[in-house]
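Example 203, ligand glycinamide ribonucleotide.
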Amino acid sequence: MKKIAVLASGRGSNFQAILDSLAAGKINGECVALLTDNKNSYSIERAKNVGIPSIVHNFKDYPDKASFEADLLESMKKTGADLFVCAGYMRIIGPEIARTFAGKMLNIHPALLPAFPGLHAQKQALDYGVKIAGCTVHFVDEGLDSGPIIIQKAVPVFDDDDEDAIDARILEQEHIAYSEAIALFCDDRLVIEGRKVRVLPKV
Ligand code: GAR
């Protein structure tokens, strides 16, 4: 059974969806730690509710990103996790962490990558006028939201959508997509071939 550590910054609804999928036996793994850069993240409460340890490196208490990432890297190693899952983790992963955990770290992004990387992806999509939006689960590499894609889910954009409406529609799909991708990883069904991820058949 794979050990999973989750990185989250805010309300943690993706983290909760992952916890729910683990509890329902939909993922062959166990969550061993929550890592957060924000001491006020609601994900800490969610971890506490199910007895998972939280490791808090409050970004604002650090003099610079390098010292923050050095501590985070040490903590990540100590978890002994086989998989690191960025679930609403709102900082760019530095190159050393990305290299150390290459092929073992996932991210979810609220857009159909490679469109609209970076912050406020849903607003970027809405402002651009796309008719289809969605989410992407991908491996983390050294770029910004640029690693090999595992799963994407699409949703329609309607003329009278505001940011809240499109956020909610995408988020519902994020919760499904992330658990599916993590389950595939935990069943050793993901093979990275250059930019592409091949999904092996179920045995
Ligand atoms: C989610 O929509 C996630 O895709 C997004 O932040 C939200 C976190 O929600 N992540 C990013 O934009 C990362 N670039 P949550 O805290 O409820 O899971």
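Summary: The mean pLDDT is 98.
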